[in-house]
Amino acid sequence: MKPKQMATTTQEDQLLRxxxxxxxxxxxxxxxxxxxxxVKEIEGNLTLQxxxxxxxxxxxxxxxxxxxxxxxxxESFIKNxxxxxxxxxxxxxxxFLSNLPYGYSQAAFFSLLLGIITLIAFLMSKxxxxxxxxxxxxxxVFKITFVFFITFGIGGNFDYFxxxxxxxxLIFPHKLFFLKLSFVVMYxxxxxxxxxxGWVLGTYFTSLQTGLPLFPDNLxxxxxxxxxxxxxxxxxxxxxxNKILQRLALFxxxxxxxxxxxxxxxxxxxxxxxxxxxxxxPHYKFSKVPLDKKSIAGWTLIAIMFFMQSIPLMxxxxxxxxxxxxxxxxxxxxxxxxxxxxxxxxxxxxxxIENEKQSASARGRCDPYxxxxxxKQMCIRHKNISxxxxxxxxxxxxxxxxxxxxxxxxxxLEYNTFSHNKWIKTSYDKPAVIGxxxxxxxx
Amino acid sequence: MDYxxxxxxxxxxxxxxxLSGLQNWLHPHSESIILFWWTLWILTLLFLLIKFIIKPxxxxxxx
Lengths: 443, 63
Hints:
The structure holds two protein chains of two kinds.
Chain A lengths: L2 H12 L1 H5 L3 H13 L2 H5 L2 H21 L7 H6 L25 H21 L3 H22 L6 H15 L3 H18 L4 H4 L2 H4 L13 H13 L10 H22 L1 H15 L15 H19 L4 H4 L14 E11 L4 E8 L8 H14 L3 E12 L4 E7 L25 E5 L6
Antiparallel strand pairs in A: 1-2, 1-3, 3-4, 4-5
Helix pairs in contact in A: 5-7, 5-9, 5-15, 7-8, 8-9, 9-10, 9-15, 10-13, 10-16, 14-15
Chain B lengths: L4 E2 L14 H6 L3 H33 L1
């Protein structure tokens, strides 16, 4: 055996996985796993290794905010303060954790996840990418389940970024190429939610009391249209072989993200800036477009991203107003919302409870589905409710409040996930204008 | 025309919404601008698909 080969063999032997799982079957499985998930690509590429770390950081930040949440606890189910996705409306029946002041189980569960994150970091430092990969895959499965099945109330677009990048780096061959491509495709798809008056005229921002940060209202449309142009065209130059164009695109998107931090704070930035710098920064190398059999899985993911983004567009009506299918694609900054929800609960003993709820925050989504879900649970749980009448008034981008829901009894309504719900009025139904908003705030 | 202003809780004292100078100038053309952006989006996608996927695949098949 040559000295170089001997050194490699010794290094391989010293890997934690080879010390723990030493029998033949285990070794066979590890070899299959390494090959199946193309872990070799990570082992041999510093950019992918750094990206792996940057993605791990997003799990740490994400779980750090989820640990204190109460919306996926058994108590939230009992109190009807939870919210399920339209495609899985019975999610609450599967809640089994408690959080303070009722119990410790959720915090204990997230402590376990923190332990796994720490272990992954340790395995990365030991260059045992197979075990690090296995544990990260576990976190990814949990994250997908949590964001897309367990609750409708917690996942943001930054989680979609984290999930896509995780899928690419963990599962597919040609990892670095598809990591770069999926990043750019995210920008490209994000442009589609900006193609309306809110961004073309900039009314999303000029209907904020505080306006667009650092820019006067008069210049807002120039800024918003520049963002649209850069997301449609400029983003592709991140992949360019022309160093100057590539660097200019990188500089623009870095500025864009740091600037957006004034509004969205750290969370979104931490899902984007580290990876942006790692894959398009000083170590950037132009990658040829892979078109071999191994690339089919990656291309399928890209196609799925386009399909998911088209779901709200395929449903009748303006999804910014109806919010139907809105969460299946990117939806961040799709519109500045204000809404008023009036309801009257009539009990079988003749008593009537009237209430009004308002949402003034630009980022509050004013989704009629969320109100419907709460009412529907009330109808199912409380047999003494004879009916709930409900009016829902929604304004976007400083436009009029349209009465998009006016129903004598919510209990009789159902919600279709992927098609239009007739009880939500679109512009074709000519919903009543009940008034006009004042400027609101983003908080 | 009845122009009723509705001020939600926490927004008391905020300004009424109006378009600025540039927005007023762009407003009549907003539909055309949106159409322009959608056209650019589709053309960009088609250009990339043809240049980087369809043409190389066809070339590979011809070889």
